[in-house]
Amino acid sequence: MEYSCNTLFFLLLLLSSNLLTLFISTTLYSSSCSLSPHLQTTPAAAEPDLPSEFLAFTSPQKLPLGFNRNFDSDEILPSVGSSCTLFESDLHRYMTYQVNGSCPDDELLSQKLLLKGCEPLPRRRCRPASPSRAAEPLPLPSCLWSTPSDASVVWTAYTCKNYTCLVNRGHSQKAFDDCKDCFDLAGRESRRWTGHSTSSSLDFTIDEVLATKPPGTMRIGLDIGGGVATFAVRMRERNVTILTTSMNLNGPFNNFIAARGVVPLYISISQRLPFFDNTLDIIHSMHVLSNWIPAQLLHFMVFDIYRVLRPGGLFWLDHFFCVGNELENVYAPLIESVGFQKLRWEVGRKLDRGEELNEMYLSALLEKPLNNSW
């Protein structure tokens, strides 16, 4: 009997202590266990207001034949730049159209999105604007060095409304435009990379570069930011196939490139190069890769160039420009860190904007090692 009373006493004591603890915690310390008033009333962050066509394109799509081992899934997610969702207003304009109808005439908007990092752009289910009276292109080989027909371009996005204006703007226009004299194929373009324009050690010729490799081993490659693709045309004349990346910066560069019978790639410098590892024989870039690109982004880009070049492939860095101390302190170490072997490395003054700016040019011919290139 005494044992039962003691047991009952301890049970009552335990229950009382728990009730007391619960009372104290719910009265004295309730503020420490609850959200502060402003957090309680603040709504959750709003979801992006994305266009319905964008959502339709980027939503998971079931594979018609079910699970696929290559995808390790039964669905596919179309590729699109994640930065697109950061520019809701522009994205709405770009993805608002009548399905199966005509696309808006919005080349400037699409390029604006690309340059902001919305790359690749989402696909659309509409037909783009085309010239109202398109003409057949000139045949090869005459198209390589001929100005194409104005009828091959939709001109609404550009200041010039015909090729005559573009050809003459290098002489008549004082304002800056990217590659302002490029469309004049009878001017400076006719002398590029031939050795006839200057005796400067910075100006490598195509034949000098090709001579560094066994005959016939330079077959395919890429020109980054290649203007109107004169480099690709010169190489085509030597049985080398070059693709040219170019943006339409106040001129129909991509149309012009295609009309010349070589292949344009409409991508910015931010996009990972769309080639598999160890595949290209040569990559060239003139002026585009320079100190206007953030150094870390440039470092990523040069490594991407190294990635897609085959062992023994060439990277021709043509007239890279920067301020004098930047070359020594930033860009030379950056390039050297990637792992190329130097075949040529020429440095000279850039004087077109005045000697006082202390600008420098670097022209380099770099080779990915044939062996142990990883």
UniProtKB/TrEMBL annotation:
Keyword Cytoplasm (UniProt): no
Listed InterPro entries: Prob_Methyltransferase, Put_SAM_MeTrfase, SAM-dependent_MTases_sf
Keywords: Glycoprotein, Methyltransferase, Signal-anchor, Transferase, Transmembrane
Gene3D superfamilies: Vaccinia Virus protein VP39
Location of this chain's protein in the cell: Endomembrane system; Membrane
Keyword Disulfide bond included in the entry's annotation: no
GO MF term (any one): methyltransferase activity
Superkingdom classification of source: Eukaryota
Pfam families cross-referenced by the UniProt entry: Methyltransf_29
One biological process term in Gene Ontology: methylation
Family in the record: Belongs to the methyltransferase superfamily.
Record-given protein name: Methyltransferase type 11 domain-containing protein
Organism: Salvia splendens
